[in-house]
Amino acid sequence: MLEELSGKTHVVMSGLCLITPGWEVVEHEGTRVTFRELTPRDLAAYLETCEWDGRAGAYAIQGRGAALVKCIDGDYLNVVGLPGALLVRLLADRFAGTYGFG
């Protein structure tokens, strides 16, 4: 999987659902992640860490996997696993006095 991502851009998609007795909202967020060109040595070194084990995308951007990434376009927290900017926006829309600035 990491070989396939090498030198390419992929989109990390996360879903978010907020449910209360009075309302429900379902949204999604995408973040574009571009990997640098990875050498066989890069791949071997990362695989040796076992950090990839159990990861949906075979890397952990919040750990050593950050060294695999050239750049991201979007919410970093979405790549980690929770679309934080989306969550804050949804909460601010519903509870402006608590989570927003107004």
Output the keywords:
3 strands; alpha+beta; elongated; 102 residues; Maf protein
Task: Give a concise summary.
The chain is of the alpha+beta class and 102 residues long. The chain is built from five helices and three strands; from the N terminus they run H-E-E-H-E-H-H-H. It has one domain: Maf protein (Alpha-Beta Complex).
Q: Overview of this structure, please?
A:
A hairpin with a 4-residue loop joins strand 1 and strand 2. This protein is α+β, with helices and mostly antiparallel strands. The chain contains 5 helices and 3 strands. The protein has helices spanning 2-5, 40-49, 76-80, 84-94, 96-99; strands at 9-19, 24-35, 69-73. It has a 3-stranded antiparallel beta sheet with strand order 1-2-3. Helices cover 33% and strands 27% of the residues. The protein has a single domain (2-99), classed as Maf protein (Alpha-Beta Complex), CATH 3.90.950.10.
Structural class: alpha+beta
Q: Mean pLDDT, as a whole number?
A: 93
Task: Give the tally of β-strands.
Answer: 3
Give the end-to-end Cα distance, rounded to a whole number of Å. 45 Å
- CATH topology description: Maf protein
Total helix count? 5
Helix content: 25-40%
Provide the CATH architecture: Alpha-Beta Complex
Number of domains: 1
For the biggest β-sheet, the strand order reads: 1-2-3
CATH class: Alpha Beta
Radius of gyration: 17 Å
H/E series: HEEHEHHH
Q: Could you tell me the strand content as a percent range?
A: 25-35%
Q: Profile the largest sheet.
A: 3 strands, antiparallel
Low-confidence stretches: none
Based on Cα principal axes, name the global outline.
elongated
